[in-house]
Write a structure and sequence with these properties.
about 375 residues, alpha/beta, Rossmann fold, 2 domains, about 20% strand
Length: about 375
């Protein structure tokens, strides 16, 4: 089967959508299918080649594009002739420029993965967004999204808790297929670095992600004084970079907790595995619907690490609550601090949570299993088209 993925973002830019498209494409190739990804050279891909084949065998075509708004690129080169010869067209949204270009205009089955709602963060660069602007922008986008998605043959989302609360997805016929993870690469690094699940730093907690308003790292920093009151030797490692870093650094200074926090910026995958393995818990304090699943939760579980996550649609459906980690109300530093303290107070229970999370990854979130669900959709749609 020849599949073309239309994704607004892709490698070398890194993010949830990019990782998902690359991993799904890799899983399909392992099953004997051919995959091409057509994407934009924005954001942050201007220096990447216009065409290349990645080590996994994924063929990549990058098109010239313009960035209409932040992270909403629109291709200036795409045309329908590029899709000739493919059996399946699989589009990833948002952004919606590729879907707009193909919806109702192609002969092949059209599959859409709806990654998340377009949501205006509460602030950018630490500056609050005018609240009157939010419903106007989001409402117009949601209406547009529903109109386009209605023209797809199949739409799927990654969790039902997200879909059922989405102003877009709850009005669209959809399926649910979770995200997977290739934990074999993690295991190779673990062996190379001689890491073991039980040898964790019982006072080290980890935040890993882009330092953006929707990620909620500032609420984690606000929780740290309460944590340090009970466990003064706790160390928080913040791994990532982004537009909110200056604001987060200001909070660290304001609370006078600099010695308890380490900023690492971006890191290699080997270093990330080491950080997960050595941390007693991964903290995932995201605050809004831009976070629809949280692949980092799978990474933490694959590395035998307990999780403390925000109770928001999507992320709240990933782990087995109480067994793999804990959920807390979003934007609530006191509740976040209490959950972190609960983890720190019982390191052995935290390690047991990490082991349960790893079991989840090996069964529910194994790409070998999940890719068969996607292939099943492809085959079903091709069978309908052939009638």
């Amino acid at each position: 089967m020849k599949i073309v993925m239309l994704s607004p973002y892709f490698y070398p830019h890194t993010g949830g959508t990019e990782k998902y498209v690359r991993d799904l494409s890799t899983a399909l190739i392992k099953e004997g299918h051919e995959v091409t990804v057509i994407t934009n050279n924005l954001p942050k891909a201007k220096n990447a080649p216009a065409k290349e084949t990645l080590p996994e065998g994924i063929k990549v075509i990058r098109l010239d594009a313009i960035d209409m708004f932040s992270y909403l690129p629109v291709s200036t080169q795409f045309n329908l002739k590029m899709l000739e010869g493919y059996d399946i067209v699989h589009v990833h949204v948002p952004a919606f420029s590729f879907l707009r270009s193909v919806a109702g205009k192609i002969k092949q089955p059209l599959v859409v993965t709806y990654h998340c709602d377009v949501t205006v963060s509460e602030k950018y660069f630490g500056v609050p967004v005018p609240q009157w602007l939010v419903p106007l922008f989001e409402g117009a986008n949601n209406l547009y999204a529903r109109m386009l998605l209605a023209k797809a043959d199949t739409v799927y989302n990654t969790t039902e808790t997200y879909a059922s609360t989405s102003p877009v997805m709850r009005n669209v016929s959809h399926r649910v297929i979770p995200i997977g993870i290739f934990f074999d690469k993690i295991d190779e690094i673990q062996k190379k670095l001689n890491l073991t699940p039980d040898k964790k730093n019982s006072r080290q907690i980890l935040f890993l992600g882009r330092l953006a308003g929707n990620k909620g790292c500032d609420y984690l920093v606000k929780a740290m004084p309460k944590v340090l009151e009970k466990f003064p030797d706790t160390k928080l490692v913040i791994c990532g970079d982004g537009e909110e870093k200056a604001h987060i650094l200001d909070l660290v200074t304001q609370f006078n907790i600099g010695p308890s926090i380490t900023f690492l910026g971006t890191a290699t995958f080997d270093k990330l595995v080491e950080l997960y393995y050595t941390s007693i818990a991964y903290i995932f304090p995201s605050i809004n619907r831009l976070e629809a699943f949280g692949i980092v939760q799978l990474e933490a579980m694959a590395n035998y690490t307990a999780i403390v996550a925000s109770d928001i649609p999507g992320p709240n459906a990933v782990m087995d609550v109480g067994q793999s980690g804990l959920l807390v109300p979003k934007q609530d530093p006191e509740a976040l601090a209490a959950a972190i303290c609960q983890i720190l107070a019982d390191p052995e229970k935290a390690k047991a949570m990490g082991r349960h999370g790893r079991q989840q990854v090996e069964t529910k979130y194994n790409w070998k299993t999940i890719v068969q669900q996607v292939i099943g959709i492809y085959n079903e749609l091709l069978a309908k088209k052939s009638k």
